[in-house]
Amino acid sequence: MRKVFALLTIVLFSIYAQAADVNQTFYKLRDKILSVKDYTADIRMKINVSFMRIPDLRGRIYFKSPDKLRLERFGGISILPKKNINITLNNLLPSGNATVIDAGYDMLEGKKTHILKIVPSDDQTDIVLTKMWVDEANLLALRVETTTKDEGTIQMDLHYGNYENYALPDKATIYIDVKEYKLPKGVTMDYTETDNNAPKPKTDGKTRQKGRIEITYLSYKINTGLSDAVFNKK
Amino acid sequence: MTALLRTELYKIFHRPRTYISFGIIAAITFVIQLAMFTDGKSFVNFALQGVSEQFYIQGNILNGYLITYIILQSLLIHIPLLVALVAGDALAGEANSGTLRLLLTKPVSRTQLVLAKFTGSIIYTLLLLIWLAIVALGASLLIFGKGDLINLKSDAFVLILQKDVAWRYVAACGFAALAMTTIAAMSLLLSAFADNSIGPIITTMGIVIVLTILSNLELPIYNTIKPYIFTTHMIGWKGFFDDPIPYAAIGRSAIILVVYTILFIAATLIYFNRKDIKS
Residue A23: which of A91, A93, A102 has the closest Cα? Predict the structure, then answer.
């Protein structure tokens, strides 16, 4: 009986220790991410959506915690996915208390990552569940998968370099769900020779309805005290 | 030949109705620009609703380049009519006014006369396109400013960066000139058959309208003949606003238009050289 009790105590203790461990990892990482109150970043953006033919766009992203974001294209037209305007990591993490569950380990691009499942305690928040692949050695999230109430699942892959101390990526790849796009040919009066012979956007069975946005961050200016007026510009 | 061409140009540009075409282009362009200036945002919102459901699109969307594209799209049918006004009148007008027989008593061959009429029509067409570029592109840029161009196709949303647009318009105008040359050649052929200019002008318009509708109908029965109809290729200028630009398709379309032009002119020469001129 004593042996069973001891074994149970050890198991419970290890579960508690593990939970405390993943909790600590999550909150430390979140604190690191939230230490960036604002930033201005020059970016290069590549939109890879089957029906969109858009060249690489250069511009500037302005971000202010908790959720202000603006993309400026130096006079050109800027395009951002509507469903997941949260193209910064900050907005993919629950902000209040959360239950963190250990979901094991996985290798991501040759790096060992700890998978954490985070369920926000506040049921009013839009985020239902966030799954993070954390590089514990450097305290960085290499992949974040967030399921929201209204916008489905958003996945973001992150690559770090010069700004990893702030958990700011050098490159972020965001995966989005897109609906099919069609306009009547009678309205657009397409040049049919083009349609028949020009190369079609590359799609396959798996990614037909998936879009991908790659953002390469060329430089950052961090915590400069950005004014709210920057986000009100039209 | 030069003297003959000079005479043709004199005749074309000393007729008041020649300038009606320039006036019509300016009027249509102005009407579209005014509509876009006052209610362009609603138009853009309507046109982009399929994309803006999923994406935020911000910036100067309603810029001069987009307005010009809308104008060119709207003038798809009108420009051939204006070209036919002059080319359709070239031989039939002379016959109608009784000057054709007199003209042929001069020491010029019938072939030279047809080629001079055709060249005169081409010069008029080119001037019409240059005028279109000035009032559509020039004025729109002045009113609405520059910006990236959004081109909505039936299955694609194409964005062309501002720095990459101007040369595409130059290329598109070049292609449009080729397409309008084909119309001028057809109209001249019809003009050779007639003794009054109304017939060739209306017939040219009828052919262009019917074939344009046929080119745009998405019915399998017409798909086999579409590649051989010249109206399918007349909108090849739009290819310059795609990404990537379908150079092979544009080249094919250009060749087909050139072949049609040569056939129309050859037929005109053959018929006109054998024609019994009675007036």
Answer: A102
Convert the pLDDT of each residue in A24-51 to its tens digit.
888 888 888 888 999 999 999 898 888 8
Cβ separation of B154 and A182 shorter than 8 Å?
A: yes
Cα separation, A207 vs A167, whole angstroms: 29
Closest chain B residue to A75 measured between Cα atoms?
B59
- B159 at A interface, C-beta within 8 A: yes
Candidate from A76, A188, A192 with C-beta closest to B161: A76
- Contact across the interface for A192 and B215, Cβ inside 8 Å: yes
Question: DSSP letter string over A221-234?
Answer: EES----THHHH--
- Listed range (A6-10, B58-62, B137-141, B206-210) with the worst mean pLDDT: A6-10
∠ Cα A169 A174 A179 (to 5°): 165
Do B50 and A183 make contact, defined as CB atoms within 8 angstroms? yes
Instruction: Tell the burial category of B230 from Cβ atoms under 10 Å away from its Cβ (0-12, 13-18, 19+).
Output: buried
Q: Which of B41, B74, B153 to mutate to test the interface with A (most CBs of A within 10 A)?
A: B153
Domains and CATH numbers, chain A: 2-232 (2.50.20)
CA distance B247 to chain A (A): 9
Cα of A207 to nearest chain B Cα, Å: 17
CA–CA distance, A79 with A59 (Å, rounded to integer): 11
Does A76 contact B252 at a Cβ distance shorter than 8 Å? no
The two tokens of residue B47 are: 């046109």
Nearest-Cα distance to chain B for A231, in Å, is 13
Cβ atoms A55, A79 nearer than 8 A = no
Q: Any idea of the CA torsion for B252, B256, B262, B268, to the nearest 10 degrees?
A: -170
Q: A75 and B60 in contact by Cβ < 8 A?
A: yes
Q: Are strands A52-53 and B157-160 parallel, antiparallel or unpaired?
A: parallel
Task: Compute how many other C-beta atoms are within 10 angstroms of the C-beta atom of residue B266.
Answer: 12
Percent of chain B exceeding pLDDT 90 equals 57
ipTM of the complex: 0.72
